[in-house]
Amino acid sequence: MDLYHRSSWCAQILEETNVHKTNQNMEKGMNFFWHHLFVVFVFATLLSGKSTIEVVTTLPDLREIAKEIGGEKVSVFSIAKGYQDPHYVDAKPSYIIKLRKADLFIQVGLDLEVGWVQTLLEGARNKKILWGGDGYVNASKGVTLLQVPNIDPTKLRAEGDIHIYGNPHYWLDPENAKIIAENIYIGLVRIAPDDEGYFQENKRQFISRLDQEISKWTLMMEPYGGRKIIAFHNSWPYFENRFGIQIAGFVEPKVGISPSPKHIKSTIDSMKRENIRIIIISPYYSKKIPERIAKEVGGVVVELAPSVEGMIGISNYFDLFDYNLRQLIDAFKKFDDEKSAGSGD
Amino acid sequence: MLIHRYIIIFVLTINISWGQTTFQGMNPNIGVIGDFSYQIHSNDVDLDRGFQFSEVEISFRMVLDPYARADFFIAVVPPEEAVELEEGFITLLSLPYSFQARVGHFRPSFGKFNLTHPPETPLATLPLFLGNFFGEEGLAATGVSLSALIPNPWDLYIEWNIDILNGEELASFKDNAPEDFLYLLHLKNFFDVSENHSIEFGLSTMMTKSDASGHETRLYGADFIYRWKPLIFGRYRSFTLQSETIISRKEVENQNINSFGWFLFLQYQFSKRWFAGSLYDYSGLPTSGDDVERRISAILSFWPSEFQTIKLQLQKSERNFSTPRSFISVYFQWTFIIGAHGAHKF
Ligand SMILES: [Zn+2]
After folding, report:
1. Is residue B57 classed as helix, strand or coil in its secondary structure?
2. CATH of the domain at B306
3. Is B344 part of a structural domain of the chain?
4. CB-based burial of residue B179 (10 Å sphere; 0-12 exposed, 13-18 middle, 19+ buried)?
5. What pLDDT, on a 0 to 100 scale, did the predictor assign at position B24?
6. How many CB atoms lie within 10 A of CB B306?
7. Chain B residues lying within 8 Å of A100, measured CB to CB
8. Residue spans per domain, chain A
9. B145-159 pLDDT tens trace
10. How many Å apart are CA A49 and CA A43, to the nearest integer?
11. CB contact under 8 A, B19 and A153
């Protein structure tokens, strides 16, 4: 869709090349050649421009939902990888190149990407996707936020590196994917109103599949309602709420703060006391301390994917929950079996 | 100076009271950085030591409208409590033809290191050549800057900018007539070698029109950064190699003064909060072809959180002018930030 740049760049090269021609006869042939090449370029530009909407998202989860709604009308790219900590992405200039050509930009919003999105958006010089532009989508619009801090602002940081507008990891509740889909749908219609019907149908299909899967997942998790686990970092409240598990504590004493020996000890004590055996963690955190704690309590560290492509084999939004719930259920079962084997003696 | 201080206090008060009302959304991002250090400087004869509070840097940053943002950085420098405008500029984000422009007082992109405010660099001291060729705080000047990305079929990041600046206060240009502008041209290139490795290099040149007697000063610079940062464990391990160089050619009566400076900086992050670095630093003086100084430094930094950094820097300096000729310095620097600490530049 970056029609201006590609065509002007071609034209410039063509002009420059034309200047250097000397031979009259050759010139005729060359003119013919360049003329045709130019036509081909223009067509290619027009075709590539017309055929797909370039969508850039901050996270792969948004990318996958955008793909569901946009279907064949969009080509999608996510800046962060699913196995990367989304709070700390380097604002590499190569992402600016992607954003420069984007027609639609979708972010999680709140303050998740606060350390890197602004630099990238401003560097892109692309009016369409700047805040307030037709091609800018904040996927959090309409999401009911959890853990909105109610703290005197001057003491916020005493809680560590907390999210000041509320917890932004809302894509980990599949119900919220409906709201995300709606926001993306509105954005797509804004920039490609002719395809409204197509996007609407895709959205309908996505939501109906989502409903089916949510019933399936809820059923899978039913036997484990109220089970307590420990999380390394506070990124799972939406997941916890949806699937009825209970996150009883964190390995990090405060957000982003490494645990002290005292905190490790108290985590071990409370895990033993409450018979908690599972610690969940995202792949981008060091597993050293959680593994030490797990060993101490005879438990296990379970790596859950915080995003699509966070673990091998998770290639779309549905895989994300299939994978994570399977991991959790396997761990719960393992300890249940151990327990029943133990009581059998 | 006192008046300046009251203005700042006044501005802060307004913002604080705004913060408590519904106008919060109209509040710019405010950040305050304190830069405290304990320093020891010693040679064979003397030992100098003491606490230093280098500066308090106050920043106000905000998007003005859909097309522009404004940034102000004001420093209060003890003990004179001088108030300095470090930067104050508006950036027009998306001009026609994808141009971007900056107008005001800012740190121009001669090289890469200069773009970072001194308290936020990984070093307790600036590289020598920034001080020698520009000024104590590096290069900052008033003027305009225009930049654009160069479209290319390989989708590489290639950005040029041209700046027209007032620069009569900069060390390299001090004796030029004040009405002469400085012209700066910079080219920035960035490549992702792979997901975890990247290379950035830039070329800069800066010149003045001739002074009253027809003399010119030209500066040439090159900068290079190689970064390794694994995407998956990027918060625990990383490595940076950064080098920059400057060549100066200054015409004076009947001759040219050629001088040169460069540095090489290596930094390895060996855990989430710890970095070890070393710096080799060499610089001449723009006004002399013979005077040179060099330093070698070792730096250990600890980040208790994103909002504080503690650095220990050991440094050996030598020079062939002024006394003492060689000395050893120890910096124990503590910088701390409250409020917004803008998006990290890459
Ligand atoms: Zn978070």
Report:
1. strand
2. 2.40.160.10
3. no
4. exposed
5. 47
6. 15
7. 98, 149
8. 51-137+173-218, 224-343
9. 999 999 889 889 999
10. 9
11. yes
